[in-house]
Amino acid sequence: ALITGMNEPLASAAGNAVEVRNAVDFLTGRYRDRRLEDVTLALAAEMLQSAGLVSSNQDGIRRATETLASGRAAATFARMVA
Question: 12, 48, 55, 81: which has the highest count of C-beta atoms within 10 A?
Fold first, then answer.
């Protein structure tokens, strides 16, 4: 289980429009809050492993990191909101 405190945001801001901007900045690599990055990679790794797409949590983190670095995550998000 991954548990985070709800008394402070994972990123540097809160509010719908600001959080969307933060998500875009995160996906494009413009700026990544460390706490948000840690939680995002941990959740992505867990999902990839649960789906049988990777054999270990470490492989999942590596794959998620590569997906962010390559721009594929940002491109997928752009298609989703277009």
Answer: 48
Round to whole Å and give the CA distance between 54 and 77. Answer: 22
- Tens of pLDDT, residues 2-50: 777 767 777 777 777 888 888 999 999 999 989 899 999 999 999 999 9
Kindly state the DSSP code that residue 82 receives in the 8-state scheme. -
Domain locations in the chain as residue ranges: 16-81
What is the number of residues in the chain? 82
In angstroms, the CA 68 to CA 70 distance is 6
Cα 3 off chain centre by: 15
d(CA 5, CA 11): 12
